[in-house]
Amino acid sequence: MSLETLELPEPSRAPPRRVAEYLKAADACIEQFVRRARGSIPSFVPSDYVAAYHALAALAPRDDLHNHALCEWGSGFGVVAGLAAMLGFDAYGIEIESDLVDAAEEWLSEQGVSVQLAQGSFVPHELVELTDAAEGAWLNDAGDDAYSELEADPDDFGVIYAYPWPGNEELYELLFERSAAPGAFLVMHRGLDGTTVQRKPT
Ligand SMILES: C[S@@+](CC[C@H](N)C(=O)[O-])C[C@H]1O[C@@H](n2cnc3c(N)ncnc32)[C@H](O)[C@@H]1O
């Protein structure tokens, strides 16, 4: 089974002021966190949040969404999950680094944005062998998956957002194909190759 790639319309305007202010606050908070962490979490790299906003804003009104629940895989500061919440999604994030989960919970609550975060792996335990087998996987799979903490299953989300380490995009697609619901969307940031939207066939 292969994923369908969607062409979304070019955004006709900049994000609204509330979103622009939220993203400015996110940049400042992340910069401070990274300076304090002094490189101790090298796998955390912030994504293109404006592109993520435009992709989610284009998906939100579609009537072919399986549901309005989004999970950010490897949520870092939870910025994209927060954008999803601002667009009316039920927003969730799974992050392996507990320091990031704590920092994200604090800053999202300061922003008044409701996101449910869980510490652990987004790789469902029955699929861990895929990450073990993947050459060059730059994925921290130490630890249990976090779905029970979210009281959810991997196929409970209409949209998944992810920003993998470069070279791991195909592995993330495979994990999505194997775990997401038919009809779910995968929004993925691919560094210099931009942000794509794909859909699992129904
Ligand atoms: C490139 S960063 C992206 C962070 C965030 N999504 C963003 O766009 O700002 C990837 C994140 O995935 C986390 N991560 C790596 N492996 C993970 C796993 N198995 N489960 C959950 N998080 C993981 C890293 O700690 C890191 O915060």
What are the SSEs and their pairings?
Elements: E1 4-6, H1 17-37, H2 49-59, E2 69-73, H3 79-86, E3 90-95, H4 98-110, E4 115-119, H5 128-133, E5 159-162, H6 169-179, E6 185-189, E7 195-199
Parallel strand pairs: 2-3, 2-5, 3-4, 5-6
Antiparallel strand pairs: 1-7, 6-7
Bound molecules: S-adenosylmethionine.
Care to give the gist of this entry?
The chain is built from 6 helices and 7 strands; from the N terminus they run βααβαβαβαβαββ. The chain has 202 residues and is an alpha/beta fold.
What this model shows, in words?
With 202 residues, this protein is of the alpha/beta class. The chain has one domain (16-199): Vaccinia Virus protein VP39 (Rossmann fold). Helices cover 35% and strands 16% of the residues. It has helices spanning 17-37, 49-59, 79-86, 98-110, 128-133, 169-179, and strands at 4-6, 69-73, 90-95, 115-119, 159-162, 185-189, 195-199. Strand 2, helix 3 and strand 3 form a beta-alpha-beta unit. The radius of gyration is 16 Å and the shape is globular. Bound molecules: S-adenosylmethionine (SAM). Residues 43-47, 72, 74-77, 79-80, 94-97, 100, 121-123, 139-141, 163 line the site of S-adenosylmethionine. S-adenosylmethionine (SAM) binds next to helix 3 and strand 3.
